[in-house]
Design brief:
With 384 residues, the chain is mainly α. Among the domains are: 47 residues, no CATH class; 205 residues, Serine Threonine Protein Phosphatase 5, Tetratricopeptide repeat (Alpha Horseshoe), CATH 1.25.40. It is 73% helix and 0% strand.
Length: 384
């Protein structure tokens, strides 16, 4: 079009310039007849170097295809690995469940045999069987709870604290779905606490404490709160644990403590045990003035059960000792010592009520001895 332009300024200046553009066109070189755009220049370059460009394009295409295939293979392999891992996890879970169910089945069978021996009065054989077939976990059931409660108490009465502690820890599993009132009425908390504390294994006792707190944290019953404190404070506790017992303390503050307003018998005894539990909590918190107040209040109810007095005197002895009342502290410790000597000769009689009816169960006396030993250790620590 440039050769045919009417305007001289827009036509080729010479025939040679026109011929040069023709040669450039034939050689796939850029011509001067039009402004050279990038696409135009690229097109001319490709035409001039067709073989090289096609070769490069083939190489690039093969690389793209290679990378694409490699990435696809990687995705397939990763998916296969993930699927294999998923199937392996399912298989391992199935094996674990099978082993767990097999263990529970064996536990049920063993528990049934132990229960049968107990029903026949063969307590020692039942205990022997349970010890030779130790259980790490059991299913919650009334039968299992009855067996473990009986064997825990039987071992405790014979001073076999390790076996007793194991039975009572398993009892917490058997009682997983038990009603709180049932556990309280069967004395599960107050029997297990002294046995586990006497065993001396801090880890076991801490596990038991945590279980009691979890099960009874939201209770609104005075007796539940009182027994929860009684069962968990027979050994020193961490500040964090003591803080979590605050709802129990607040609940026990609502108990009627005015003696003139209480009926003789159960109401007086309940007030006495609640006051004693308050004294024990204050002692663990280092609030010794309050511990002294609650301890003297508890003793003032004159509860006839001898084990009760034996549990109060050590608390009073330690409170007086911490407050610097040396003479009163020695007097209370001597009172506690007389009770312990009276009951342990050198051990308790292996019976639920070792000193006779209404004088305290075995766990009441073990509890009293635990507190007496703590008081003695406190006195020796100051004098040494």
């Amino acid at each position: 079009m440039k050769a045919l332009e009417k305007d001289r300024a827009r036509r080729y200046e010479t025939v040679g310039a026109f011929v040069l553009d023709l040669h450039s066109f034939i050689a796939n070189e850029p011509v001067s007849a039009r402004p050279p755009s990038r696409i135009y220049l690229l097109n001319k370059f490709v035409r001039r170097n067709r073989v090289a460009c096609l070769t490069s394009l083939a190489i690039v295409a093969s690389l793209v295809l290679g990378f694409g295939f490699a990435y696809y293979s990687f995705l397939r392999e990763r998916g296969a690995r993930q699927e294999q891992a998923r199937l392996r996890a399912i298989s391992e879970t199935a094996r674990a469940n099978e082993a767990h169910l097999r263990k529970l089945s064996m536990a049920r069978e063993n528990m049934a045999q132990v229960a049968a021996l107990l029903s026949e009065g063969k307590t020692e054989e039942a205990d022997e069987m349970l010890r030779h077939s130790p259980l790490s976990e059991i299913e919650p059931s009334l039968e299992a709870a009855n067996v473990l409660r009986s064997l825990g108490s039987w071992n405790a009465m014979r001073g076999r604290w390790d076996q007793a502690a194991d039975c009572y820890l398993l009892l917490t599993q058997a009682n997983r779905f038990s009603d709180q009132n049932d556990m309280i009425s069967r004395e599960d908390l107050v029997a297990a606490g002294p046995a586990l504390a006497e065993d001396g294994d801090r880890a076991k006792y801490d596990r038991y404490r945590d279980w009691v707190l979890a099960r009874f944290r939201d209770t609104d019953a005075y007796l539940h709160a009182q027994q929860a404190l009684q069962a968990t404070l027979l050994r020193p506790a961490s500040p964090g644990f003591l803080e979590e017992l605050e709802p129990f303390r607040l609940l026990l503050e609502k108990v009627e403590y005015e003696k003139d307003n209480l009926k003789p018998g159960w109401e007086v005894e309940r007030a006495g045990w609640c006051a004693w539990s308050n004294a024990l909590l204050c002692h663990r918190r280092g609030e010794f003035e309050k511990a002294l107040y609650w301890g003297e209040l508890a003793l003032g109810y004159q509860i006839s059960k001898q084990a009760f007095s034996a549990s109060v005197h050590p608390l009073l002895a330690m409170a007086h000792h911490q407050l610097g009342h040396a003479e009163a502290a020695r007097r209370e410790l001597d009172n506690a010592r007389e009770w312990i000597k009276y009951a342990f000769k050198p051990e308790l009689v292996p019976a639920y009520e070792p000193l006779g009816k209404d004088n305290g169960y075995w766990w009441d006396w073990v509890q009293a001895r635990l507190l007496f030993r703590e008081a003695e250790a406190m006195f020796r620590g100051k004098s040494g």
